[in-house]
Amino acid sequence: MRYISNPPDAASLMMSARSFGNYDLAGALADLIDNSIKAKAKVIRLQCLFNDGDPKIRIADNGTGMSLDELCKAMRPASQNPCEERAPDDMGRFGWGMKSASFSQCRFLTVLTRKKGQYSGASWDLDSLDNWNMGIFGDVEVKAECSKELLDSDGTEIIWRRCDRLSEGKTLNNEQFNELIIHARNKLALIYHRFINGEVKSKKLTIELNGIPVPDYDPFHRKHEATMQLECEPLKMGGRKKIRVQPYILPHYSKLKPADLDKLSGDEGLLKNQGFYVYRNNRLIIYGTWFRLLKHGDLSQLVRISVDIPNSLDEIWKITVDKSDAQLPSILRTRLRQIVDGLKRRSAKVFRSKGGKVSEHGKVSVWTRYVKNGEIRYEINRSHPLLTALFTDASPDLESKLDGALQVIEREFPVNMFGDDFSKGVERINQAEANPEHFMDFLSASLPGVLSECNGKLNLMAERIRNVEPFSSNWTLVEDFLTKEGWTNVNS
Ligand SMILES: Nc1ncnc2c1ncn2[C@@H]1O[C@H](COP(=O)(O)OP(=O)(O)O)[C@@H](O)[C@H]1O
Ligand SMILES: [Mg+2]
């Protein structure tokens, strides 16, 4: 046997690298931001210029920069073997990130960098790749092209030109370009929210887009008092490698400002955005999926679960080049299934407990339970005899006032407090009147109204209230009351 060198064709390989992964603009920018974070950058400036229909995008950081050697290595496709274990804070993968992310959007990539005051620059032009020839910039050329920030301090700037794939190959007008940029900004606000808000220690990050800081957007809206944080489940995989699973329930829409609701709903709505939010090294890599463990709508659309994985578990997660997808390893699948099943049971139980009476066969209850899209809502039953008595009694104006009052009572039902009490022990909750004397007072206040509704016919009244709460479960007391009042022939 003899061996010949059989290298890939440069142009074909680079062209196919354009389709590695499944990048959109935000995803591609995020891959470069990951590199900047790894290079200890604290500020990242994105500049997206429409440039009369020939967009130009610059991603500049104030990280450590690269030497010429490091730059040449970095520009090389597949610059690092994916099997090598990486530092825990490393967000890269496969040594393809910068190249495949950039070429997913543009045909001409320039990298300018400064390390310890030394400038280097290099570029790949997909339209001129003969023999893997890469352009190298001299000191003067770098200084002529870089931003003033790089003239002042170390860092790296990446420039995309000939951006032919910003929007699935469509030519964009100025307005569409701006929309695309706003969409990308919102996604970056979500992907890096933990870095932007400073909760990742010593890694507080400022991302600017066209001179304006990108805000942090917390998908769990943890600052809101009505967000419920359920128990956290730490899972161990492969010895010390820990995965953290933390379920949240978002505040009900009635408790949110319209702008916050818009943000939480995103373009696709709350239901599509429920599910797992998977973080790798604090960077959100995939979100709004149940990994086929549940269907969207099986649980309330307000349920979101954060899952934190260290990058040392990449192998078992099968992270793709653009990090936008990860397959669940089977051990974790089993555990996550238990967690979502627990949540399902829990929500079913909450609504069965006191609400058991709600749907008990043949009884008229005070509360009505509605289920839609896996979400449960309780309303006061307006056809309850005590209420119909009030409604029919009321003038038209009073009727709407009454209904308004009931709506307020329904909306202000203390769901979170109730959920919390319930989780601490359902037996502690008792809504029934403990004091028989108070119940008798209630009967003397309410029954005359019902009796007059029944045109003073005792039998009719008894028939009406016998299966109606709260009379039916306190029937002996009702009978006592009726006897006391001399209304004795209720059984006849
Ligand atoms: N902004 C940057 N600052 C400093 N070094 C960088 C920067 N971007 C890329 N590099 C270097 O280039 C290498 C290759 O990056 P990349 O192509 O994204 O592959 P990966 O991140 O998967 O290793 C990185 O490992 C890093 O050493
Ligand atoms: Mg990278």
From TrEMBL:
Pfam families: HATPase_c_3. It comes from the Bacteria. SUPFAM superfamilies: ATPase domain of HSP90 chaperone/DNA topoisomerase II/histidine kinase. This is ATP-binding protein. It comes from Desulfomicrobium macestii. The lineage of its organism: Bacteria, Pseudomonadati, Thermodesulfobacteriota, Desulfovibrionia, Desulfovibrionales.
